[in-house]
Structures are given as structure tokens and as C-alpha cells.
Amino acid sequence: MPEGNEIHRFAKRHAAAFAGKRVSVDSPNKAFPDADALHNRKLHAVRAHGKHLGYVFGPDLILHVHLGMYGDFWEGKMPLPPEKGALRLRIWTRSDWLELRGATDCSIFDAAKWQSLLARLGPDPLHPNSDPAPAFELMHRRNTPIGQLLMDQSVIAGIGNIYRAELLFRAGLHPRRPGRHVPSPVLQSMWREARRLMPKGMVDRRIVTTEPKDRPHPRGRAHDDEIHYVYRRHGKPCFRCGTKIEKDDMAGRTVYWCPSCQKS
DNA sequence: GTGGGATGGGCAA
DNA sequence: TGCCCCTCCCACA
Q: Is A263 a member of any domain?
């Protein structure tokens, strides 16, 4: 489900509902055996970096959640809804509840493990004070295709397959252009675009990356084919030039681009 | 109803 | 590079 923007949204919402409160925690499907260690403890804060979440119950008691491909949260007001599906984790207070299913990781980190996670992640465009220089430097040194570098969480944290495709389209960059052949101003403008687009990207729990002016029906719920310029639009005409969007495998993930708008 | 693919990443080899 | 994790959605029948 998530790219970095949704992770940050979850962090804010979950902090608003649960931070500063003593919470109940359980794991109905027993897939998170350490639920007992958190039960009846106070949640102090919720942190997000890239696609990682940290629920801070204590210095060495941080619940790390990575949603991966399938993971998802649901939230609501009490009472708890009936148990449904593979329910990995529930957190609740007298007023709010939270459910987690399908996550790649849901485990307790101590301070050292959380720090070493942060140390191997690149700068996160969604952190207002993050410094992109190390990411630019890495990209500028490498022959690796820019499409692969954007997905590398140790280079830049939080961008997934959708934003990769859409940021490259907006930058006019072919995904296979080597990192070292991307001019600095283009890297900088991609970083700026990521900071601008990602926070406003969620509409009806979907990532939307097109500008309203490019969507034929701006007032209604956008049709699936209107919410991205290139992502999952292979074989369809580019909104800008009409050329058919292409797709290909890049290091195990599908990348999409307009062969005429995006130059290698 | 069914089957393939998907916004991710760790790990073995 | 390919497999696993293990869930949801959509195209297609």
C-alpha cells in the first residue's frame, strides 16, 4: 500500500490518536508475539523515516513497522470492530482503535537497532530539515540507472515505484539514464518535486500524481487511468504527447515511461 | 469464481 | 537473481 507519504500520514494520525496515552495492545493472530510487552504501556511518540515507522514506548522499546507490499492500517473510533482476517496487531484506548495486517515487519527495536536503521537510510524528502546533498552525491557518482537509484532506500528514503515513475516523467528523464549523467539542477528539481507532490498525494486512500488540470473530470472521483501520467499506463497514450507509454523490468520492479517525453 | 499482479525488502545463493 | 512473505484488488471468465 504505502510509499513514504502515506507512512508519514500514518505517523501523524496515530500520534494524534494514541501518543501520550496508555494503550492496550494485542495480536489476535499471534503473529506479533511481543504484544504483551507493549500492553498497558504509554506510547510516547510515533516516528517516520522513509517507509519505516517507529512507535516509541521507551528508549529500548520501539515498535518497528514496515508495511511492505501488503501491509495496511485501519483506524476508527471504539468499540473494536469484529476480528477479521489475519489481524497482526491491535492498539486501542477508550476512544480509538488501530489495526495492522500483512506487514513485512512488526517487531521491537532497541535504541541501537533503530539508530542503525536510520544510519542506513538516505535523506527523506518528507522531513522538512533533511539534507539532500548526500543523495545527490551518491547519484552523481554512480553509473546505476537513475530509475534504480530513486528506489534505493539507502540513497533516498521514501520513494516507491509510483513516485519513481512520476518524478522521472516530470523531470523528462528516461529511467535508464545513468545517475552520473543527470545534471545537478535536475536532481535538485526532482527533490523539490518529491517534497511538493508527496504530501498532497493521497486522495481516497490512493496516490494521485497528476495535476487537476490534466484530469478530464476534476470534480468527480478521478478514474484510475487519470491519477498517474505513466505509472501502470503502459500501452496507453501519454497525456502530454500521445505516444504510447512503455514499461520494462528494472531490477525486479516494473518501471514505466513515455519514450518521447523522457530522454536517455 | 479465479488468477495474476501489486505501492517492498530481506535473504540465500 | 529469484524466492518468500502472505493480503487485496481487478481483469477476465
A: no
Active-site residue, from A22, A30, A141, A253: A253
The three cell numbers locating residue A22: 496508555
* Closest-lying nucleotide for A201 based on CA to C1': B7
pLDDT number for residue A219 = 52
Rounded CA separation A234/A65 (Å): 32
Residue A124 lies in a domain: no
- Give the nearest nucleotide to A163, CA to C1': B7
How many Å does it take to go from CA A253 to C1' C2?
Answer: 13
Q: In what order do the strands lie in the sheet with A105-109?
A: A45-49, A52-58, A61-66, A105-109
Entry field: residues in chain A = 264
CA–CA dist A158, A172 (Å, integer): 21
Q: Are A61 and A41 in contact (CB under 8 A)?
A: yes
A264 in any annotated domain: no
CA A226, A231, A232, A234 torsion: positive or negative?
Answer: positive
Which nucleotides of strand B lie under 7 Å from a protein CB? 5-10
For A23, list phi and psi in degrees, rounded to 5.
-125, 155
**Per-residue pLDDT at A217:** 60
Give the pLDDT confidence of A113-123 residue by residue, as tens digits: 999 999 999 99
Across A54-74, average pLDDT: 93
Residue A216: which pLDDT band, with cuts at 50, 70 and 90?
low
Whether any strand C atom is under 7 angstroms from the Cβ of A241: the reply reads: no
Burial status of residue A83 (CB atoms within 10 A of its CB: 0-12, 13-18, 19 or more): exposed
Q: Do A99 and A149 fall into the same domain? A: no
Q: What is the average pLDDT value for chain A, to the nearest integer?
A: 91
Q: How many Å apart are CA A206 and CA A146, to the nearest integer?
A: 25
